[in-house]
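#onboarding

Welcome to the new folks! Below is a worked example of what a typical request in this channel looks like: someone posts a single protein sequence, and someone else replies with the predicted structure as tokens. Don't worry about understanding the tokens yet, we'll cover that in week two.

Example request:
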Amino acid sequence: MNNRAFGLVALIAVVAVSIVFGMVLGARLTPPKVIHADTAPASFARSAPLQLAPAQTKAAGATSFADIVETSLPAVVGVTNTQLVDEEQAGDDERNEPFFRWFFGRPEEQENGPRRDNRRQGSGSGFVVSPDGYILTNDHVVADSSRIQVSLQDGRTVDATLVGADPAIDLALIKIDAGDEALPVLPLGNSKELRVGEWVIAIGNPLDFEQTVTVGVVSAKERQVPIGETDLGLAQFIQTDAAINFGNSGGPLLDAAGNVIGINTAIRRGNMAEGIGFALPIDQARSAMEQLLSTGEVQRGFLGISLGNDIDRRAAEFYGLPDERGALVEQVTPDQPADRAGLRRGDVIRKVDGSIVRNNRDLIRKISARFPGDEVELEIVRDGRTIDKTALLMDRKESTRGRRGNPFESDPEPEPEEEPAESTGLGVTVENLTRTMRERLGVGDGVRGVLVVSVEYDSPSADADIVPNTLITAINDQPIEDVDAWNDVIASLEPGAVIRVDCYEGGVFRYRYVRVPEE
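Example response:
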């Protein structure tokens, strides 16, 4: 065989092998179809769990987004919220427009202002989670609604009923009458196992463009961002660069197998921000949904403490901890579970029911996963000793009732005005707090301390995030009521030691940990 004939045979062999390999790979990567389950009775009083679709496994190698989208689209719906407002609200566009612009599509308006029948409409998205018509969406999509309507892919528009909502994580569960035909549903995945960098698909109805699909990756997890009425300590959002726009709220964020791993909730706008969207993890949504189905509301355990920054190296050294795990109690609210259990400011919670507390977020998750009335065993470190405490949890909503205010403040006689004395130490300059300063900073008469007026660049205090206009009230539990007390305490500090500085910043007490400079 000459060289030319041999080359032709080799080329044909390579092409044949490529075709066979492509057929095998294509067969492995065919995504699962959306599951249609039997119809269940359309009723909120359920005697059995929802008929949720089982989560699908991810195929190896590349996945066809088109196939996933084709099977998922029938279960994605549009949600319209109609609100009836009085004439004053209807004409007050400036007050209401930012809310709708951030969360919804544009309000329904005529050229010369709001609708004359005093209706205002916002639009969002949702997705079907059970064949008998239960739909998940965002709370802000359906909040304060006079009428909720759902648009299905088959062209029908039907009325929906609100089953329940959880504003703390911006979740709502609504219900439509599915009729005799089972609705297509989306399987719920596992957001805990989601990894940064994974492909995700967002589906929704942005800016009235129905069933729009965008693709991106998971940019980060456990983002704490202020969104509407969400509880900053509870809601831990997935960040993605998949394009999310007004009207996407409530739509699904899918993984590469077509499972819902998040609910598209909000976007970051302004300051040239691009590709910064947030989705509620489906694990949080699933837990809340189960309570909404059974009781119509969500209850979470509550301790009644305030937490500051996560424990860092300096804080761990100060408290004599073997590592940086745990959550530091910076404030205990009177007559609430932690106070009744005997916890104090400065305690470090290391374990809950024997489970290690990794950081502040981990403690919040562990406590909020329990129910009001549950007892929890807390292992704390106090003054270098390990102590066990038992707390009887209460409901978060109940904890907000009654007297509010700073438990550290009292109402002594006002101090007389005087010229501020000044001193330095730890890389800061401090002054006595005068009446004028109190009024300017909004500091009550019950708070005593010295005011930080300047912080040296690259000083130990700057490293500890102490900033001007901070009030220092104590160092290592020694009260600092004025500059003289400051000087006495500073002179007694051991060079190289880590100290705890009690700071009053913006109406909140915080601990800061400063390493005393070596002389």
